[in-house]
Amino acid sequence: MDFSSTALRVLRQVAESGSFTAAASQLGYTQSAISRQAAALERSAGTVLFERRFDGVQLTSAGLTLLRHARSILDSVAAAESELTGSAPQTELVRLGMFPSAGAVLLPGVLARLAATSPRITVTTREAGTPALLRALRAGTIDIAVLTSRPPHRPADGESPRLHTEIVEDSELLVAAPATGRFAGRTTVHVDELLDAPWIASPSSSSEPMLGVWPGLPGRPRIVHITRDWLTKLQLVSGGFGVTTVPSRMSPVLPRGVSLLHVDGVPPEVRRILVTRLPGRPAPAICAVTRAITSTA
User: I want to staple 282 with a disulfide (CB 3.0 to 4.6 A). Which of 36, 69, 194, 286 is the partner?
Assistant: First the structure.
């Protein structure tokens, strides 16, 4: 088998992006060039590596096996390039992925703790939803993913080998409402009262549910605003333009004019924060960042 580093980068990017089109955009190639590289890679491997689906592209079991080796090969190529050019980093790099809103409540404390205890570690971050973070983790373009899950808290994905996961904390889901108006001065609300409330939500997709609407709502929600940005959501709540859901963990960073309400009439909704990485023995820097995350929480 003869694999070029370019072909292996294509494999890694398709695994992360979930489609040939998105991979082409990230790598600066045309989609046809990506398709040719993928076909050549499969011919060289002598097996099918990509499962073409209506909703994108996934790696087959053979593709995942090759991806595991591709990560090591591409890391070695990058290390050799750094040594040959004399640009070897003076610090240890850890690439951290986080779900939206985790940065506001966890990241500043994590970075401050690392600056005090492990100044030789440099952390880069990216924010994405759970499916994208899992793809990036499997592809080897991030080292750690901070994820959130809801009951019954199943494994993050069904691929093999299973990812290594640690529980950081459980956080109760609450309703963020304007401090003035219908729910002013209250600390609880019955779920039936939320049915006709104006909701501020995030867009949903085939791989992620809609966020921002109470999951046990007894009927169809009345959604008035849709936005991915948590700050926009909370500012709209502060202005009196609707309600949304937030984990109790976010209470320290809420803007003025936002109140948190516990929901009565249904069992508590618990959101679990997880730290996930690839299986195997982690590098010391990855262990240090993981400790900083759990200690900060």
Answer: 286
> Which of helix, strand or coil describes residue 72?
helix
154 and 35 belong to one structural domain: no
Tally DSSP H helices, then E strands, for the chain.
9, 12
Phi, psi of 182 (to 5 degrees): -60, -40
CB atoms within 10 A of CB 131: 15
CA dist., res. 209 & res. 198, Å (int):
18
Q: What does pLDDT average to over the chain? A: 89
| Two structure tokens written together for 215 | 């999951």
What's 16's domain CATH number? 1.10.10.10
Q: Which residue segment(s) compose the domain that 50 sits in?
A: 5-85
Residues 39 and 160 in one domain: no
Label the pairing between strands 222-226 and 198-201: parallel
- Per the CB < 8 A criterion, the answer to whether 174 and 260 are in contact is yes
Closest CA to 241 of 289, 193, 200: 200
Q: Report the C-alpha gap between 70 and 224 in whole angstroms.
A: 46
The one-letter code for the residue type at 231 is L
CATH code assigned at 165: 3.40.190.290
Sign of CA dihedral 280, 281, 284, 289: positive
Q: Are the CB atoms for 82 and 88 separated by under 8 Å?
A: yes
Q: How far apart are CA 174 and CA 100, in angstroms?
A: 16
How far is the first Cα of the chain from the last one, in angstroms, to the nearest whole number? 47
Q: What is the pLDDT of residues 53-79, one digit of tens each?
A: 888 898 998 998 999 899 889 888 888
Residues contacting residue 286 through CB under 8 Å, at least 6 positions apart: 94, 143, 144, 277
Rounded-to-integer distance, Cα 49 and Cα 34, Å: 14
Query: Could you tell me the two tokens for 72?
Result: 């090591």
pLDDT band at 207; cut points 50, 70, 90? low
DSSP letter (8 states) at residue 182: T
